[in-house]
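Bench notes, bay 3.
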Amino acid sequence: IFCKHLPCEHDESKPPWQRKEAGRMPKKGKREKDSAQPKNVGTRRAALKPQSSKATRTFGNDADGSDSDTSGAQEPEVESKRLEKDVGFLADWIHRASNSSDGTAEQLLVDAAAIVDVKTLGDTKSKMSGVEKLLQSESIRTAVWCEALTAAVSQCLTKFWRSQQDASTILAPGQILRRACCGLGKVRRESFALSAAVERFLQKPLSAEQPIAGHFQELVKRESHIEDFWDSYKAFPNTGWAACPLMVETASKDESLIRHKFTSTPETRAISEFSDEEEEWLDNDQSSRPVTAPSGSPPSKRRPEFLRQLTSTPTPYARTPASTSLMRSGTPSTVFPVSRSGSPSRVLYSADGFRSVTPQASQAFFSDAPLHGDEQPSLFAESRSREEHPFDEIPDLDELAVTDAPLEQYIRMCHRMKTRPRPLPFITGHSAKFHAADQGLLDKDLICMKSLVQEVDIVEELDLRGNSKLTKKSLVPFLKECAEIRSSLVSLNLSQCKLMGHGTIEVLALLLRQPSLALLRDFDLSGVPVPMQSFQSLLESIGGHPSICHLRLADVGLGRLGRSTKSCLASLFKNEILETLDLGWNVFDTAGFLLLGRCLATARLTELSVPGCSASSRTVRDQPIEFFLENLWKVSGLRVLDISFNHIDFRGAFIIEDVCDRLACLQHLIIGDNPLGSYGKRCLLRLLASGSSGITSYSWEGCSASSAAFTADKDFTQRFSRLNPTGQYDLDLARPYHRSVLRMLHKSCDEFELKPANAFSEFRYSPGAYHQPTCTKNGFWNVMTAGTLNIQFNIDWAGKDAMDGNGNWEFSKFLERYAANRRLKPAMRKAAPLFGLWRQSAGLREDQEMIISALAHDFLLGYAHVVELVSTAPKMAQLILSSIMHCVTGGQAFRFKSLLLLNTLPQFIQTKQRLKNLLHFNVENPTWHYCLDLSENCDNSVAEQLLLLNRWEIEVDKKLQLLDISELNDRSHWRNVRHRGKSLPEQNVEKWHSPEDGMLEFDYVSSKRHDPETPYLDTPNFAKLIRRLQEVQLPHADVIEVLRVVSHRLPITSKQLRELLNLFALSDHRIDCVVLLYLQVVDIQNEKVFRVRFEERSEIAELRRRLGALVFFPYMQPEHFYFEFDLSKHDQRLAAQVILQLRFKENLHALREPSYVDEGVQRHLDYGVPRAWEKLESMPQSGILSFKYQVGVDERKWQGRRAFLQQYGKWRHTFEKHEVLWCLGTAEVPEDVLDFMEFIVGRYYLDFMEPFNIIDGSGSSNGEISFSEWLEGIGRLNFNKFDGAMKNLRLERLFHFFDGGTGSINQARWRVLQELFDDMKLELSDFAGFAVRHFDYSIDALEKTWYALDSDGSGMISLAEWSKAVQENFRFYGPSKTLFNFIDQDDEGTISITEFLALRPIFEHYVDAALERLYQKRAARAGKWQKHLVER
């Protein structure tokens, strides 16, 4: 294979034995002897590539009989075209880059050319030569050259970018592009290195065994020649078994290789593998000669070279003293199987040539019917001449004398017993190993062989496996004969001899105590039903044997019928030299497995097999083998362990991960056909990737399924999560699985350098006192083995040292650090076995899906790992990327690069849709409503990250001494949690173990608030943002997702958030926008500016439900706000306490229309809400409390409100009273108040106090308006909108709106009208801003807006026309009806151009502000240019 990949300087038309120097690399400094031989003109890369076409082998000779010496070199046409295309492409690139005007790129290319000594790159020929030298150079394989090449590519791409874009904006993209190109070269090298390592691992055998010393001397005794047997066999040619096939045992593959290496024995080739010319030579030269013809005559043609090579070196044969051979010349004979035209035949090759066997003779050769007369062929032709051995001329074979007395005795014994002789290598005398496996021997066959064994001095191995019809009648005397007089037996195999019986076992036990079997090393009794009364004596004999090191006792009935195996195993393990032990398919109870595990501490086992031994388990909770697995940490030399078919579920796999994490000796684990399931395979893959474990390979076929009984068990819901082990644990320390969970919790403390006292809390142990476990020197924790333990485990304080200032709120750094500590990133030493296992599962989709799931839950993967996964299974690319994308390191850049591994655009779109929750998840602003499918790995990872963030923020809240405003009084930031459509049981999320399937829906509200020192988004940048969002043609839901990704970089004001709300038509999208950006508002004291955009109480209730009653709370402006509290929720009870305490400070009668409903019964509050409810402990624990808060402007205590905002809202803002924008929403007041305000604005736009003075009376003004003065003053204002039957009632309601229940209106209360008008001005300003931006800040934007609204050109705009135009033309979804009524001053139901032009001041304000910003920007740019000129 190695020569095949080297440049071969020969003619492919010649046969291999006629090629000179084929595949041989010339030595350094040595010149070629044949100067006429053409040199290889291909590049080194092309030379090392395997040839695409295979040359047809032909045989031929020169006239003089010598081998041909002519050779040539010719590259394949396909390879030449490919090379020419690649070189031409690179040459064209170098030519273009060298002719560019970019000096930097040209200099890089000149430097690159200097590396390979390329002087000029002018014409095409020199370019091709330069590129060829470039590819042939050694520097192209170095990291320095790769970086230089990628840097040159980056410069060329940057030059192209510069030519397409403005030079002032190219700096940053060019740097990014260059880093991307350099990174590309790095990750490509990493991918190639990983792929090569995996390939090397797969090519390396799992258990490479070196031949033992002296193995060659034993191999030569097993040559497949039977001349000695034939010499004795011809003495009885006419018996019934004369024509039976003489089957011989051939050496194994490894033995053939060793024999070829040390003895130069020619390698056997099948005739079917020869070419047509070779077969023609064979037929023409030998087929005409009879089979029995003398072999001494020379052939008619010269034999091919390969035949001379086969016979050039004679094979030395080692004969035993009891055998003789007729092959005195020493030349071997070889039998070649032939399959031509469907007819089997045999060809014998000897030193003189070939002898063929006719199909008829071949048929007789393989049949049981004898041949008679002339049809009977001579199956073997001797390689000697007629004079030396005239075998073919002997008329009667009975006249020949038998030269081997023991063999003659055996044949005569077979004749007497009427059984067929067995031409085994031991019987023919060519081997001292009695190998008679699967021969179907009967008692009479073994009795005949006993006669031969009596005369043999040495029996090294005795193999009778598979002869199930042998009984004690023949076995007992045969074994005694082999044991009594022989002392060289090293291997005894009696497996599957099922009729041995009690007597044979007892004799075998006695023989094992004899000195004659003291050298026995390998003993196999598998499949033999051992009687119960014989176990003890047999195992005692084995345990006391001085040399047995390989023992197989599989399926012998050990432990059946409920019998204890403790005494048997104790006797067995007295043998301290056991290396290989197979106890499979026996029945072990808990005590037996426990003893077996403890015995491993003193045993020297390297291989242990216990498959199918847990059949005695009657419960699904604890399998007996789990007690054995828990003791694996004690072994010191075990390399291979077979525990297949033992009902091992995820608990057993978890125990293996626990005890083998630091076990360096165990390398291969066979755990097939166990219901491991996904979680069990995750445990094993974590163990495989662990750097401290020695595991390098698994055999786990049939382990994908999990039992339904195991899934329904309580342990399935109480599983240890490596990524997030925090939670509540109820442990029964009598169970191995629960002890392993406790040990893993202590290991987590070690990994985070935590003291157990800080990580464990809420200890409850019974019975007695709990003792802390101790750790051994090899990292194993000795925990208690009895009692029940209930604990709360928390590792979130592991990063408390990083909690300093803003470090508390750097969520992305916390999650990255946590993932680096808890997730496994396989090193190169373990990456090859890990991804080798992935390659081995190719085609097994279920196994591949489980491997992907395990990688998604517990691993960190680089881009090279992703390439390896996708390249091995390209059909699963979508599933792979959608499952492991959250594990890819390197940030968004490498995630996007991983998505580019997909082949088609539909795959790309579908995969991004599946990754929606992950790609849109904003770690720095996690406040959002989540709906996650936990069966999707990426959605599950989002849930895990939010659980970690929740626990981190809980610790931050405790450190900063922030108030608990959670929903269930557990400090949790999760709200409204529902799993599979049902609410969680009454337990806090901190102790909750996240499931792995089902739909999980919840709201997350972070304690992170915007830093008040960070500047908010300035007006120009916000104008660009809202204009882009206004112009983009996307669904509003997609616009929300876009804002979500960048929300942590959008510190905005309340007015800006209000403008954003006008982009969305549906209330659901407006609610999402507020939830997303609520905690990014820099002036939260003005939250009412955007809160008034929600007119329905249901919308306010939804915001309070998602954000929390204390987060979305009107601390600064609670007036006219309708409160409704569910007193069963902790945060709502706190919110009710806040408003009750505020009432006590401002006005005891501030609560209007109070109502309390408990268990569906209305409780009357005739005297208002009781004062005692201001204390939390006195407030009811259930029921619904609702009311409206109303105080006058002069009664507001803004300092107290600010204190509540900082304490309960967790806001760190400090502000003064003049920074509060007091406003009153149009939706919070009755329609009559709006009509009155519109009338006042139309008449007294500049001064709102003028109508107050008119109503109060100019002559007798006292600063307060009574009801009678109110009725009289309204007449003086000429306010006629209430004319009619209900005029007095409507005026009375209007008066009570202003007086606040005091009976009079003062100037402070009259200012409410100004606050209402301020909100109206904000609505007008919002509309004007949309219109001005739509017309690109044009000076005549007002006129253009009118023509856009008046689509029919009638000069009048109706309400329907207005509502449709503002939404379709300007994408403005604000309160259009309120604006229409305000602009319509004459209340005719239409807007004229005169009424619309009254908005000119507002439009001009926006245009002037935009022009001012433009002038400032140009002035700043001119100043920079002037400074630049001065510096020049």
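Next record in the batch:
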Amino acid sequence: MTTVPPPTTVLLPLHLTAFVLNPVVCSSEFSKIAPIVQPNYTFLRLQDSLLESDVLDHINLRNVTPAKLNPRITDIGNGNFLEKRFGVYIHWSLPRLYRSGFAATPEAAKTHSDEKLKAGMPSRSADTPPDGTQDYTAPDFRPVPNRWLVVRRLHKNTKMPTELGNTMRSVEAWVVQSDRLHNINDLGPQVVVDLETDVSPFVNPAVLTPEGDKEVVDGQAEVFIGQRTKWEKWDAEKADAENKVDLNVLTSSNPLFADYQPHNSNVFSVVDNFEYEFPVTVTGSDGKTTQEIRKAYLQDATADYYVIGWHSSPDDDPLTTSPPAQAPLHDKRLKDCMLKLKDDSPGAITDWLNTSMGAVRALCHATCYNVEYHAQHAPETVLADEAGKALKTHPVAVGVTPLDALLAYCNAHGSTATTAVSPADSSKDDNTTPNKQVQAAADERFLQAFEAFDGGTRYFYQQSSTDGKPVDAPELKDAFVELNAQQQQLDTAIRETQELRWKLFAEWWNFVAGFAAGDHIDEYKTRLSGWIKDLYELVGEPETMDNGKIFKKDGQTKSILRAAGRLQTLLGEINKKRGIITGKPEADLEKVVNDGSIKTQKGTSPRFYQRKDPTLLFGGGVRSGWEPDFLDPLPVRLDSQLVRTSPEDPATADGEWNDTQLPGALKDIIKDLLNELYHLRPGTTLSTTPPTTTIPPKTTTDTVKTVVPVFPHFHDEAGRDRWNNTQPWMPLFVEWEATYFHVPYEHWEMKEQFRRTDGAKVVQFGFNKDVSSLPDGTVQKRGVSGRNLLLPQASFSLETNIRQIIDNNHPSKLDEIGFGEKDRKELIANIKELQYTSFPLKGLTSHLLTLKEGGMHMKPLVRRRNRAPAVINAALTPFDGSGIHMDEDMVQLMDIETTAIPYGDEVLLDADSGPPLKLVTHGQLIFTKLNIIDKFGQAICVIPPSSRHILHSEEKTANVPTTFPSLGDSYYTGTVGNVDPHTDPKALPNTVLKLPNPSFNPFIQLTPAINQPACVNAHFVKKDGKSWRPCNDWESPIWGWLVINYADYGLQIFTQEGVFYRAVRLGGETGASAGLKWLPFDPPSVEQRKQTEQLDFLIDKLVDQDYLHGFFDMINQSMAQNPGNAPNSYATAMAAIVGKPLALVNTGWSLELSRPQNENWSTTKTDTPDKVLVPLKEGAKIKPEGPPPEQYTFPVKLGDSERAFDGMVGYFEAATEGPSDLDLERLYTYFTPDGTDNIPAPPTAPSTVPAAIVTSLKTSTAGGDRRKPIKPTTYPTLTPYYLPSSTVELAAEHSKQLKIFGMIMDPFKPVHAYTSILPTTSLKLAPWMVEKALGRIHAFFHVGPILLTKDVPKNYDVTRSLTDDFKFENIGRATNVIPEPPVIPPVPVAPPGPAIPPTPVVASAAADPPPPPVEPTPAPTPVPAPTPVPAPAPAPEPVPALAPNPEAPPPFGVAIPVLGQADWNWLQPFNVFPVDGGAELAAASQEVRLEAAPYTVVEGFLRAVRPIVNPDEVGKT
């Protein structure tokens, strides 16, 4: 057993890949080898119009075969092969800890430096600028290892050239200096240094300082990094003194730098061309002989490769803690670095994890065994060829997300795997049937098609009463309203500032790129001065003194002092308002927020959304270019866990190469690691059974600890450290080109459609005609292109989505569809192994906005560690002598908004492209180029390479090289005439070009979508005077309640507070009649009576029998179609006896843009868009001249009858004239007979309604039914708008944009708005609004006239006057005294018509207050105690049954046959005259006999004391 010292080094495994390059590899039929295209930093120059949006051109794959034409391995000048480039290319992939940056918001800046040091960042990462102002918004990345030892060990079976004999060493080693900096003049002649394979082009950020002049910027085209030196010539001390760069993964600003081997030669990769030297005797013309050293290359070889990397400076090591930070525990540091111990078994390893970081170093290592090189043939397995073959038959899929695209791919190729992931990915409780689950899943998946943007801040009133309603604090109302109004203004101003910063950059770019010349100068000046003026108004103008600006100088940066702009003013006003609301001075606001005493709660406003670009997925063996576990914490080992053995590796023991140049602190560990890697080669017993080691005790009391050696992470069963005679395929990025066809908006229609895959009904746009038959010139065409990285997050996103689906569905549901527990576990375990890769087609929408993004380009500001962006002096040079003022302050204002690039004159547009700016996407897309490139430059052309970039107008059919993607439902083109392709095989896809073969459709449908963030605002509203506005937190939008009373064959109407107002009944002379107002209750307060005006307008319509019949039928249909979904607690509400109430509310809807309308940034074509989102500014030029363009309007579908979770029953539009707020002549609803207008309405009652009532309803005659079906032709429309922050009374102006609808809705469900262009928006009543009213709504029935043998009391008891807040629980009960027939405590109603209005009073069987409760006597029909009303309002206490009391006066009652499962009150109206009268109580007999005359006829109301409950359910919850 070997004894080892305590651990001092953590071993980080890297994945090493080896790629063989030779002429045969370059001649494959199914894949290609890309020529080397490196960044051309000449395009960073700021003069001569050289500036371009991307310094990296697309790779041209048209002429790369045969191999003699490929510049990757051929000198095109002379046609000779570049043998120096043949061989094995090895590349090591950096782990995540070097790819993750540290950034912080200004609020977290105080502790950020210390946190970075604790996480292992170098000491310079905590540098503070001289002026003390720190800016951590830009991420700071860890330095990468800058020293790499690369060892090649030849196998003994390698055939040596005869000229070498046995003199060639088996081991060759090199040292790679990743951070070595070169200027082209220092590299020597190109015949010695290959600029494409020996070094890597680089931008040195250290010289791009504010002081950087034109020459410094221009010189970046001549800068390179990277150097490889043979081990025996390596001098570590000399190397440390050479020019170098502070290197991390993003130092060069090239996103491909770390992973694309042609861009990181001798930085993170090397080429082993098996070069060897041998002496040759040469005889000269004079007959003399000389010895020459010549070079040649092995033609066949088998080798193992080892790579070991470290930081030359311990301060750069991520496991070293720089002072003054306190070292964390080892366990904490590993987690911060996204590392974990592969084996953390208890013992020595656990002790190490729980101790503080000491002098610990990181050592990276990687291995690839058994790499075979043959100059004359390709590897046995070429994965790129296999993927290329697969893509011929299984090309690509398009969806809104990777999961959606994968489902489309599986559906298109008949896979049954979709049943595992396509069932209802929804957890909604009300989706109890498969169809409803699928419907909800479709809605949720639609949301994933959009990217969310911050909507700003909104304050909510935090304090609330016991019923959940926000406290109505009159003294704070105005301040609270103003607070939110000013916050809305501030949020808008912030978005405007970001927009103006970018516009300022865009103007700078267009000038430097060559636009502002000649006739364009004046136009440019006008635009630039306008942006500057608007921006200064927001952020404040620079303060000036004498002739210059005041600068706060720190020697390196200049902070410009500014006057207060509107942003600062608004923020100050907001803080003052918050101070008023909290009752604390403004200075104490921070404390108030923290101690919880503030009365406002800071929340978020609704977000803005913009549709994402489509997601493309490659299947058929195109696996991800990243290891499946790349995103997991990296399993590492301690040096004590190395596999140690004896004898040592002969190469390190016999002196083939010396170790004197190894870093002292790591020398022994590197030697042990090389020894381990040698002995773990395939075929050795040690590679499967490592021996154990021990760590000696530190003290006399300590014990010897055993350590079990651990294999490196990639030395696994999958053999990831072996080459396996397989050429790797690691897709890294995709380059694409396509033609976009813009189909005019008038040829689109929003309608409900069934999705092809699962039958869900969705609201979506589609064509309203055959678009291939549109006249020439109708459809506009545009070429678009882009480059997209293939990132590891795609597989992670898919795994997350699938986990959510499984978690959101009950296991029993999944079992029912055959997706059992075993299947679920296998799917999760193997999801990372799926052979697919995906990426978003980012950049497509930018092209339509005349922008380019994603490229590497020059920026006028440079970011330095911990500092704000600083202006590069050279960025101002082009303006010298131009007559245009551009100073440092103006460039500073651009800040970080320098990512997207304007078209300018870089992109030339065809004549048939139409106006360049497409404010709304609506068209189709067809790919013309789709190339997948891997990390070594292997490429698969999904579409055969062609010079074609855009389909031109003369082409009438899509008979061009392209691909035929599998389409997700959102991108399906539909068919001509909307024919179902499943039932009619001849159905033709509805495409802009006719298809030669309809079975192969290359088009992707891009339905209408606004190309900037927008949102549908949804508010409950109320009217102030003549203006509508959103309700405040403490205001209820309900203006009435409706309850159908089937027993009365009527409609009961209640006020917003739940106070009964009036009933409308079918029957009578006119077919419908309205009862007296407020009867059987006393009229409420005058203030409450003022709230019934709109109810009166509605009742005036309801007394028309046909209107009422239609109203009844609408409600009945809605309840029959969606019968459930009320909360269980609602069963205890008094209204539950007659049915679920419906709320009458007013709502407002609008379509808001988050920022000003986009502008055309092309300088070669300036046509005005055909349609606009908002009207053009006054005085704007129209090109070509003509009338102003039309404005877009978008239909909106409110509610949905087939979605059980939607609560809308019907709606009225706002009235344009007359006293009523709503146009009650048109009732829009889904519940109409046969979906037609103005026809007789034979209402359909639920099955529980008596047959006689149903028969009566069907006898209705035509007349006043005003229902209009909601369908595409009747959808209301919303017009986009934008209000700048400078708008006077901004909140009021937003309110004016609302489109008002009066709605009839289920109070327990939200109402949804479907637009197809944005995510579904919902609006739901707050619980307190509903619960308070439900606690007051009384369920009662009209009864009579009815014949009684005893009269009701004649005396009017004022104490029992039935006011709206009468406590019914104070009435006595007599059900225990008169068991049969049921006795109902009296509740009166008299027929209308008395001279003096009747005042109702309650009479009861118990004339006196009830005695104290006693143990109840069991009633013949037991009734359970009611449960509380849904939310905080308490339910009335039940009145217990009374025991018989022989001394008490006999109770009286009205003997009526009623349902025995409930207790009842009788409500009796009285005509109260100004004279006294007497009355006696008479008890109703319970015996069956004919009573003596006289008889009394009464008419009144029955009220349920408690809900009706089935006797079988008594005692159940």
